[in-house]
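Hello Y.,

Per our agreement to keep a running log of every chain we model this quarter, I'm adding this entry. I've kept the format consistent with earlier entries: sequence first, then predicted structure.
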Amino acid sequence: MGLITLPTTVPWLSLIWLSMVVPAVVIALIPGERKEAMRWVGTGFALASLLLALLVFLAYDPARSDFQFVERVPWLPQLGIAYLLGVDGVSLPMLLLNGVVIFTGALMSWNIEERVKEYWVLLLLLTTGVYGVFVALDLFLLFVFYELAVLPMYLLIGVWGSTRKEYGAMKLTLFLMAGSALTIVGMLGLYFGSGLRTFDMIVLSRSVTLAGDLQQIFFLPMFLGFAVLAGMFPFHTWSPTGHVAAPTAVSMLHAGVLMKLGAYGCLRAALWLMPVGAQRWLPAIALLTLLNVVYGATIAMAQRDAKFIIGYSSVSHMGLVVMGLAAGTQLALMGAVLQMFAHGVMTALFFAVVGRMIYERTHTRQLPELGGLGRVMPFAAVMFILAGLSSMGMPGLAGFWAEFSIFLGVWERYPLIAIIAALSIPITGAYVLRAVWAVFYDEVKNPAFLRLPRLTWQEYTGAIILAAILVGVGLYPAVLTELINVGVRPVAEQLGGIVTAGR
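Predicted structure for the entry above:
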């Protein structure tokens, strides 16, 4: 049984994503000059969505391995399309992650002064799509929500961004549209090749009627289509550019949640539905992720812009996620999902510090131009160091358990890849410590930095929430690992059974 009991007649999952649509409509109707009201509405509903996600999380029964809180309404039955929602041990942590990041991102958005109405509407619609992806069990519905999550990014970066924002927005959009095209190919292959004429992922996973040779053909476009958003090498180049160009809250959502949509799609739509195809292609994918992990960390070490450091760090850490998926063992899959959660919180905290606390005050992110900020921003220094320690995989923080589980799981299948990937650990430590020194403890380069404005209550609140989660999950990882284990077990069993049969 879950920790609490919720009425089964209430469509809880629909309420979660609708809690982002309602404020978008309300804000659209508020007069443009009432900026404060828009901020309170957006932030209040973001908190409401987080609380709803937390209720579902607490009410979920981890003793059951099936989907819970299922909602099913025929949508286009003649095409096999339904409004089908549900959550399991994989989607629940992601649902909670999105709630945390959008609430803290909303707090970090109170400094937006231009076109406030449009900004909040687009931000909330983006989050609607993210929530929808994590609860959709119909592949067509998942794709609809996926597109809703991706498309607002173009305007959010192009209008409110900085540092070659038009270039960053266009590059991101083109890459992700190409990924969507690949995903559609995989979806159609499943739909027609299975002979079931349905997009119901539960039915497709149980039947596994798609012939093995067709799975080998259609697995790759399905996996790579989502892997583009996950920042997998060599399709990763849009990601650091997008991170740097985006405004703070959008960077938090971009790295903290949107990249997780890609990894989630790889697990939910590709590995789960086409295990035979996964057996064929996962070894090659594991090799590519090795480039992600080591190359991303190495390039991060060479950066002088603090946001680019975090951007390439995300490429490296998301490489670990996809590497865990490519290993296919239950331990590796569990570590991959936990890494998605831990990295999402960690990067949200990184971007909150660099984008909102530092850049908005100093108007620079260049390490040689910063220095001595620990004197005037001791709180920001502590938050950055905490996120950095989690990035380095230090014990006692969420990132440690995630990376440890991934390396153990990958060792079971690809020990050499695990050994080479471990090179990223000291490199990560080097660029994190370098950034900490250059930004907070080096000599002051600009005397004006000693008279910077104080941090706001929104900045304190958002950062404390993110830091508390990093520490809380680090000290008691079982709050998520037991749940995730139940969620990934069916996928691991399918992959393991096919590998065994193949031997």
